[in-house]
Amino acid sequence: MYIKKLFFPLIFPLSLFSQELDNILNDLNEYSDKTHLNINYKPTAMTVLYGNDLESLGINTLSEALDFIPGIQTYSGTGSNSYISIRGQTQPFNTIYEKIGFFINNISIGPNYYQNFPISLIDRIEISKGSTLGLNNPHSFIANVNIITKSSIENSNNISLQTGSFDKRFSSLSLNEKLGSYNMGLGFFYLKDNKKVDAPSANLTTEQFGTSFDRKKESLEGKEDIGFLLSFKNDNFEFSNTYIKSNIQNNYGFFNLLDFNDDGYSEYETISSELKYTKDISENNIFESKIGILENNYNFNSYFYKLEPNNIGLYNPHFGIDYTKREKYLSFLIKNKTFNNHEIDFGINVSRNSIVKNDFYTNVDEDYKIGSLIAGKYYPNSPNLTKFSGNDGNISNIDDKTNISYYINDTYSYTDNLTFSFLAKIDDFKDFDNSKSFKVGTVYSNDNTNIYKFILSKSSKIPSNTEDSMVGHLNLYGNEDLKNEDLKSAELIYIYSDNKDKLKLNLFYSIYENSIDIKEFETNKYTYMNESSNLDNYGLEAEYSKLFENRSKIFLNSSYNVFEYKNSSYNLDINTPIVSKFTTKLGYIYPITSKFTISPLLRYYGSKNLLNGEEINDVLLTDLNLIHKFSKHSKLSFGVKNLFDQTYYYYGYQTKDENMLREGKTWFTSFSYDF
């Protein structure tokens, strides 16, 4: 079955717990206490990845790190560069995926997934799956990703350089220095490559009209990313600034048809600033206040199909967007340390959302009758673009909105071995029904080695601006009657942990209600809808790590996830579409000598069900990383990904066989210096 649709991407472990190989056993517990991690006792399904271990395994980017986690798969599509599937959950027709909250040093950057954020800047990544409620995370519906950078850690100074396949050029710098009473943190990175992947299954933008295709059939995936991080912190104040910009070519093309040139791009830009004030207001109470601004900008440029050259005065359909959303927020939180064995947090967050830019550019539009009407269809009769803004721009609802969130969290220590927790949140968003979420959990352990958790939760999320009010310039229309999406979950977690071994098993079951998807309401016209059927999601996740006497380490992550996807408009009922149900990652860090380390990484992905009834076969990929330490502070790495040059695919919408070929063997080499 081949379903024609329009993609529109917008704005868009196990615990790896080593510091240095020679002091891991002595420092781990102290480190956890200092950073208040203690993830074994948190009533949530949390995983922490440490940058040192990721680098040892040859994992260089945020995308590769998240893919290492059981229950998470990262991949790209024909019309977009990056997706994340949490526990097998995918919605192939709705590429607006603002359901994961991303944070840098606990400060929200919204739903933007900067897949190439470098591991060389990262101290650790904290990932929570399932309901991840918090006062300042409106996008954390099914998962939460918090990046803790080296620049936020005292005396974590580093410079890294890297080159590799596709003319890759990369550099990063991380500094943390004392300036008077403040700790200053500074981070910087720059990445550029010219990635191209053969696209033998692609449909061309020229085939329908018989015009010439002027380049090799390749998916254009080159990128240029830059980022700056700056922070100042003392006992009471913390001021943080983040700037990230990512410019990425449009793979097969924005419309999933192979572009005839390399002018297409999608550009994401995030600017955030936050001032945080913390004060002990009494013996048992802490006051925390935050004031900040978050601005996300999205640009894209693309052509649809190729009409030129011709003798009838028609031009290539050309589209562009310049869209900026700004959020100003103020929050207050009271943390109660002890009260009759209770620890209570309660707070309020007030935000003001504004649409700063809302421009759409095109030289053909059916609704606004731009172009020449030929055989009932509009074609561009000019290369010049018409600018639409205001309510006629990218989205139609551009009014400022004030949103208020109320939050309370109570952790009750019934005994030394048994803890209960309750968390509730209400989001009062303008133009939408109140979003009500809660989580109840219990943690039990009588020996601090065997730990049991049980969690029940419900998360609720309002529709995105695009889903609610997108103008149909691209034949995709918003729906102001959409309901909130709800996710109800139950999780049972077992953890075994000592100084050398750690095992975590997580059994979960979720019901996804009112999922927002896409339907065709007229020929080649689409809108968003709430799916009438509930979508079931269940599975088992396993994480295991072990430290051996010779200081080598093994990591095993595995998951089996089932997502019962339904789309009543297209009469679809598919068991876990376009991603693998079963995945396993096995990594081994082996120090041959004090100076040489070899680290193989095996990545197994089970078969993937496609929308046409076929499937992509399973695949085992092998990566290998070699490290030579010149000294305690400097090292040289050489890595190969897909060592045996295996052929593997992602799901490819609008390709001839729904297959999107991926790159073969690639390499990288990097130099890192701590100072």
UniProtKB/TrEMBL annotation:
Main location, first listed in the record: membrane
UniProt GO BP: siderophore transmembrane transport
Intracellular or extracellular location(s): Cell outer membrane
Cellular component per GO, a single term: cell outer membrane
Domain called TonB-dependent receptor-like beta-barrel: residue spans: 235-643
Pfam family, one: TonB_dep_Rec_b-barrel
InterPro entries (UniProt xref): Beta-barrel_TonB, Beta-barrel_TonB_sf, Plug_dom, Plug_dom_sf, TonB-dep_rcpt-like
GO molecular function: siderophore uptake transmembrane transporter activity
Keywords for this protein: Cell outer membrane, Membrane, Receptor, Signal, TonB box, Transmembrane, Transmembrane beta strand, Transport
Keyword Membrane: yes
Segments forming domain TonB-dependent receptor plug: 43-132
Residues forming coiled coils: none
Topological relation to the membrane, as annotated: Multi-pass membrane protein
Family recorded in the similarity comment: Belongs to the TonB-dependent receptor family.
Protein name (Swiss-Prot/TrEMBL): TonB-dependent receptor
